[in-house]
Protein 1
Amino acid sequence: QQPVQSPQAVILREGEDAVINCSSSKALYSVHWYRQKHGEAPVFLMILLKGGEQKGHEKISASFNEKKQQSSLYLTASQLSYSGTYFCAMVGVGSGNTGKLIFGQGTTLQVKP
Amino acid sequence: DTAVSQTPKYLVTQMGNDKSIKCEQNLGHDTMYWYKQDSKKFLKIMFSYNNKELIINETVPNRFSPKSPDKAHLNLHINSLELGDSAVYFCASSRGMASQYFGPGTRLTVT
């Protein structure tokens, strides 16, 4: 079953912060985050493997609450280059040995000057 | 020095035709995937190969057949193309079950 992302879309001014949430109805093995710009391939941002794990990537970080089967992506002091569609993708427990990613529906982020 | 490459980038064809998309990765990864992204940007796994062995085979019409001649290549052959096959097809690769790296995509248009 597909993870659910919220919000579906967000518009920011440069320098503002945003949070994108992702939740699953199934027990999770790992959570992956990707960003896709229009007409391009999804680009890997980070992977979270353990419950409660937080990872950072420049001004983009993420957390993973294994108990709640949720993950959040935090974008701080947003830049124009952050614009794009953000996808969470989850590997369910039981699929850990196949790496089968189930993608959320995406969150479109637009950063304006 | 492209990491994951696909050919062709664009493919326009008529219903009923057979076509192939090729994928190659030079990252030394052992696992490769095919994804389909529809017009609503929904990304769905189709197939995955690990060391040339099929490990993921989602509910995909049997008109779609993947072939992995070696660890660095994964091709997708589609028979009897239908209008609903129009989409962007992405190849990806990973080392084991780690992060996946996507190719540039092949935009397939069936008329």
Note: The CA atoms of residues 21 and 72 of chain A lie 4 Å apart.
Protein 2
Amino acid sequence: DGGITQSPKYLFRKEGQNVTLSCEQNLNHDAMYWYRQDPGQGLRLIYYSQIVNDFQKGDIAEGYSVSREKKESFPLTVTSAQKNPTAFYLCASSEEALRAHNSPLHFGNGTRLTVT
Amino acid sequence: EDQVTQSPEALRLQEGESSSLNCSYTVSGLRGLFWYRQDPGKGPEFLFTLYSAGEEKEKERLKATLTKKESFLHITAPKPEDSATYLCAVEDQGGKLIFGQGTELSVKP
């Protein structure tokens, strides 16, 4: 079955450490996205990529970095510069860039990151 | 400023008790409105896309409608398995997607 795989499901880190969240898709989608979900708030866009070797900042990119070396992979690094990194992180993809009318987002099952 | 507001924040229903969830929006040119279902600890699952006022979409016990200012997700005779958080998202003319905070639905048998 095609889909998006995020790993690990739970991640614990000490403050000051960088951590990388994995996202792999086998849907052959061009566009990939990282969102952050916090209780009582809507999903917020961190970074997105419309094509390999290209990515753009979203609304809350500070303290995060990404790479897109392969079409199927879009890892997210949460750096020590991120002031409040504890959250539920969701990776998504869409068939066409910028979410064309017939191209809704497909989400992975998330990684819950806890930093203490 | 573009904004999406969902109400209520939480809704508790008895099995079979029909109701509606609301998604109000202000956006500079609506390109599409999306409904997603999210189960605890999982990623959102796509339900519907609506493009213009007056449009309706149905799937099993769910029916989504759209006006120029809001969308409703009607749930007819809900079952416990319909319990989830329902997310609304609006896409503006620039391709930006704005999510509401969600409505947590609980259906008791």
Note: The CA atoms of residues 1 and 15 of chain B lie 38 Å apart.
Protein 3
Amino acid sequence: DAGITQSPRHKVTETGTPVTLRCHQTENHRYMYWYRQDPGHGLRLIHYSYGVKDTDKGEVSDGYSVSRSKTEDFLLTLESATSSQTSVYFCAISEFGGQGEQYFGPGTRLTVT
Amino acid sequence: DQQVKQNSPSLSVQEGRISILNCDYTNSMFDYFLWYKKYPAEGPTFLISISSIKDKNEDGRFTVFLNKSAKHLSLHIVPSQPGDSAVYFCAADSGAGSYQLTFGKGTKLSVIP
């Protein structure tokens, strides 16, 4: 299994508070991704990174920001959490980007009350 | 507009029989396709992939078929086992420079002993 960890694994927070989720990899893969999974929507891409300090928006990026200061860490921040951001968040890594498999972390279940 | 569609939310199959999961896509730029399997409370795991230059790829009990003219792919599992019970996601990649996978909403497979 690819070495990907996510922290925290579970979090409950209140509307309006900032939240940061962390993804850490030990594979030295260049590409990293943040997805959210919601019933009836499958997996939707929030943001991705194609190198240190190189990031871009995905399909559902509104309300989220990311940072990647080291190859191994990719942070997802909700500046002011809303109930619509209650979801399961998955980080993924890929060695080659396009045409390559992505390997997923175990997920973070976030509840915004 | 959903570019990758899995029109069957669920599928039940008897143990030992064939499971066929279907996926349709609309974007003719997609040229690489992947299937992921997901158990509850875990991240998706890569199962099998196929390039658009092929029409079939086989790996043990799993075979993926691609019909480019119909923009359709299917995953066959033979024989089905109870441990195959999971949600299966179809994903598509539009090739070099895209960095992104587009996922379907998933099909929940239940294999009945």
Note: The mean pLDDT of chain A is 93.
Protein 4
Amino acid sequence: GQNIDQPTEMTATEGAIVQINCTYQTSGFNGLFWYQQHAGEAPTFLSYNVLDGLEEKGRFSSFLSRSKGYSYLLLKELQMKDSASYLCAVKDSNYQLIWGAGTKLIIKP
Amino acid sequence: GAVVSQHPSWVICKSGTSVKIECRSLDFQATTMFWYRQFPKQSLMLMATSNEGSKATYEQGVEKDKFLINHASLTLSTLTVTSAHPEDSSFYICSARDPRRGENTGELFFGEGSRLTVL
């Protein structure tokens, strides 16, 4: 079966750095996405990785290792507005998106 | 970025009634739109893929006669929850890809979501 695992909840301090991990087992791989979802709102796109390595975009970076079936989202200089759920999603061999359950990130002052 | 709009944002209805949710791509044409539902603290669950001018493709376990999808134009898809029951209460979200950005990234643009409460 297809499976995406990410921690249910994480807590971090304002101004700090946090890493949210995602491991996946899917039938094929055609890219991995990270989305941010604030409570009661729709997800918004953060990043896309299809090759191994680190993609940096401002305070957010995303890493992929296809051989390990592993990705992480790194958030730097955390702000209170970063409190949200972070969804990991993988596009499988049929180009269908398989979604993780999301990691709820709580930022404390 | 591309804009997808959903309406209504909130809807409360009585059990047994039908509710229609609209999803519009405002600045691009979408031949394909996706409908998801999301229960509290759970991930997005794809319900169906809406195809302009043809029948929607439903995921396994989703009742096509209960969740009617119509994609009559390149900018509008509708989801109608027929004979709604309390267990249908959920957050329904539509999304679409912007063809101008190509299929390589597969980035999805989401509507604002519609929270349905069935009494």
Note: The mean pLDDT of chain A is 93.
